[in-house]
Amino acid sequence: MIILFLICAFTIAVVATVVGFGTSTMLIPLAVLFFDIKKAIVMVAFFHLFANISRISLFKDHINWRLIPIYGIPLLVSCFLGAWLLQYLPSDTLRFAFGIFLVLYALVSFYGSRLTMSPGNVTAICGGLASGVLSGLLGMGGAVRVAFLQVFGLQRDSFIATNAGLALMADMVRIPVYLTTGVMNPYREDFLLIPLMVVVAYLGTLLGRRLSKSIPEDRFRHVVLAALLLAGLNFIFRG
User: pTM of the full predicted structure?
Assistant: First the structure.
């Protein structure tokens, strides 16, 4: 069981690195097949953290530092709020609403030049607020974060690196809140998996980086949009 979970985690780390997001969105539905829901959430949260650290170590020279504070500070605030509210609020309505947004965004972007949002500070702040609350409340904010980052027209490596930096900021806020509020209660033996997850996250990210180089820049955006469309459908129809 554990070996199969790690194989799935490795595969998803590869795919998520290629498209620039999606570790939690893709892994949580699989993790619940191996663990109870609380254990699945904590395992994926830690794996997500390690995967983002790996991506930053490999793509750090390409981070767009101008966007990090503008996008990241609102993200930190709303992520904390979302993680804190998780113990009180139902999430089905929010998940459905964001799913509709992602599907519409992907379709409009496929058939138009780009979503009509200005690549300015207001867009970055709104993206930070939206993706932060979704990261905290559902543990899956990457798709919305990517939707807003797409507007800025970042090159492939900068896109992956900047998104990883923002995702790491969210992880560092939401994991302590989950643990202190009792939303997630990992068992002591579960932490034995952490060294294995570190290795799997790094190796998956390393392979994903190599594969991403083989995708032409003009096709990379379409790969990301296809992933956003699938993520939106997952939000809408996931029970």
Answer: 0.79
